[in-house]
């Protein structure tokens, strides 16, 4: 059986890893970016290893966030699959330990403190590979896959189209007009493949629905301000519903002792992110604060909206991202190089341009974000300090969500699986890897059935 996997990020790599164990399968794994040895940090989103390659490698081991796989797979089953994905990461990376979440009494206290301030805390087990170990693990995964006689890895090969015949996926067309035919196709194109996924869905009437877009800022504070949270659960996931708009505002991707990073998206747009090394720490902690918006009819292009906001930030900062002191934002003035130089919290992202986020973020977002910062200040005093740094903008493009069944197979096209962030069903390494396992298991099961019935 011939199988194509488009995209070699967490979801695509894990699908290949599971499928390679069956010698009846011949697997072609395509990625539009470079292989893991030739990739540079400029290619943050693309290349073997996907967006996870230069990430913090924080595996959030929960069914509750990092994706919506619970909508397809029963909770008890999903827990086991997440464990399986985690154990593969553990073996490959050699990172045996989980971040501390064992102090239940302390976590209960923190939960109570959040509840009293109309915040909700979600605690989860975390395996933190760290940016350094993450890249090593992906190199190892590359070597394992590359050494299999039934796996071909094609990097720097963009898939530009798929072949659909009679409601069934039959093949892929590459950018250089090569046509290859397959029995099963797995689309695992990640966030950098969102727009392409959109085009393909429209072209072939692949049923889908709209996901929210998350827009906000990255907050950077002295490490000591949030140590009582991060020492006990490493990553705090906190949600708040804003008073004026009742929007969901949440913390995301917490990096204790971490670094703020700039990421280049497709179209060259620059947005903010954060990461943290296992063995090298800064004196700051950073995390994203994001407002979720789900647009209603007639607007169906949340990605474009997010891109527009990011474009404004890039335009005003001279093709960079903006950094602003919270005190300056509150006083209605821009931050300047000299104000940042005097600031108690020194930016870990050195080439962000001091500026004014109020020219970029719509009133609704600014109000939601400020309100949440003041709420967070009640449980982590010091967050609403004038020296706190805000970087903008951080945008999470989830694009449209492909309608898939419990095996992550398209509901409208036969033999087509849509997995990972590109299908709009996951948002992190753990669930993305798990989605690869789910699709691979279904292909294995189907092959078993087809093979027996053909005999
Ligand atoms: C800087 C950064 C830090 C992050 N930190 C964390 C973290 O600590 N923990 C966490 O859980 N998550 C983190 N994430 C998110 C995480 O990386 C993603 O959720 C995860 O990588 C999704 O996996 P995926 O396989 O769905 O997609 P991706 O990893 O995005 O992989 C998709 C791949 O498909 C390829 N592709 C796209 N279109 C095509 C095409 N047409 N033809 C061929 N190839 C194509 C791309 O080149 C890419 O390599 C981070 C992301 C970034 C950018």
UniProtKB/TrEMBL annotation:
Q: Which residues form the FAD-dependent protein C-terminal domain?
A: 215-395
Cofactor(s) recorded for this entry are: FAD
Q: Which InterPro entries match?
A: FAD-binding_protein, FAD-depend_C, FAD/NAD-bd_sf, MnmG_N
Q: Which positions fall inside the MnmG N-terminal domain?
A: 139-204
Q: Which Pfam families match?
A: FAD-depend_C, GIDA, NAD_binding_8
Source species, domain of life: Bacteria
Alphabetic keyword roster: FAD, Flavoprotein
Q: Does the keyword field hold Cell inner membrane?
A: no
Name the chain's protein.
Answer: FAD dependent oxidoreductase
Q: Which organism is it from?
A: Flexistipes sinusarabici (strain ATCC 49648 / DSM 4947 / MAS 10)
Taxonomic lineage from the root? Bacteria, Pseudomonadati, Deferribacterota, Deferribacteres, Deferribacterales
């Amino acid at each position: 059986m011939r199988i194509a996997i488009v995209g070699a990020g967490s979801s695509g790599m894990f699908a290949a890893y599971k499928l390679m164990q069956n010698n009846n399968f011949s697997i072609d794994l395509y990625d539009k970016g470079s292989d893991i040895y030739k990739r540079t940090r400029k290619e943050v989103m693309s290349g073997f290893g996907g967006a996870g390659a230069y990430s913090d490698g924080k595996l959030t081991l929960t069914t509750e966030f990092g994706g919506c796989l619970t909508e397809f797979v029963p909770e008890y089953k999903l827990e086991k699959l997440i464990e399986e994905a985690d154990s593969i990461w553990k073996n490959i990376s050699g990172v045996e330990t989980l971040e501390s979440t064992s102090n239940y009494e302390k976590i209960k206290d923190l939960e109570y403190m959040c509840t009293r301030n109309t915040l909700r805390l979600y605690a989860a087990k975390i395996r933190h590979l760290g940016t350094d170990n993450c890249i090593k693990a992906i190199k190892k995964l590359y070597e394992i896959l590359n050494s299999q006689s039934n796996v071909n890895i094609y990097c720097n090969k963009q898939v530009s189209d798929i072949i659909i015949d009679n409601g069934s996926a039959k093949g892929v067309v590459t950018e250089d007009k090569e046509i290859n035919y397959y029995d099963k196709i797995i689309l695992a194109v990640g966030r950098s493949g969102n727009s392409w996924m959109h085009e393909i869905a429209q072209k072939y009437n692949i049923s889908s629905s709209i996901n929210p877009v998350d827009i906000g800022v990255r907050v950077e504070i002295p490490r000591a301000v949030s140590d009582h949270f991060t020492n006990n659960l490493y990553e705090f996931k906190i949600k708040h519903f804003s008073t004026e708009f009742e929007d969901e505002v949440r913390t995301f991707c917490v990096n204790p002792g971490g670094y703020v990073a700039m990421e280049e998206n497709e179209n060259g747009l620059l947005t903010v992110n954060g990461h943290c090394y296992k063995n090298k720490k800064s004196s700051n902690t950073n995390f994203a604060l994001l407002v979720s918006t789900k647009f209603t009819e007639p607007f169906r292009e949340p990605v474009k909206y997010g891109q527009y906001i990011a474009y404004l930030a890039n335009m005003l900062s001279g093709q960079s991202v903006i950094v602003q002191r919270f005190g300056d934002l509150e006083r209605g003035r821009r931050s300047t190089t000299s104000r940042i130089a005097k600031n108690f919290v020194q930016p870990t992202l050195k080439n962000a341009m001091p500026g004014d986020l109020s020219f970029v973020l719509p009133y609704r977002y600014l109000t939601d974000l400020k309100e949440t910062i003041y709420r967070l200040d009640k449980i982590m005093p010091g967050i609403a300090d004038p020296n706190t740094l805000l970087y903008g903008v951080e945008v999470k493009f989830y694009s449209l969500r492909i309608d898939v069944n419990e095996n992550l197979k398209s509901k409208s096209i036969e033999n087509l699986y849509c997995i990972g962030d590109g299908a709009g069903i996951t948002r992190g390494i753990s669930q993305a890897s798990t989605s690869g396992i789910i699709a691979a298991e279904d292909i294995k099961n189907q092959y078993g059935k087809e093979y027996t019935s053909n005999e």
